[in-house]
Amino acid sequence: MNGELTRAVYDAAQRRGNRYELPCAAAFRLAAKWCVEVRDIGRICDQKKIKIIQCQLGCFQ
Length: 61
Fold this sequence. Notes:
about 50% helix; 3 helices; three-stranded mixed β-sheet; about 60 residues
């Protein structure tokens, strides 16, 4: 994955204690902005241990 996209995901994520969380709506916005599929954002989150929160459609589990 693109290093710049990974950085953008980290920048959008919120630090909670010792972990990062990314709201589902932010994942969709990032996918649209970077012209990638939402699953690509999910893959980055899985690889970097970023938890998707406030999931709207059950896309991330």
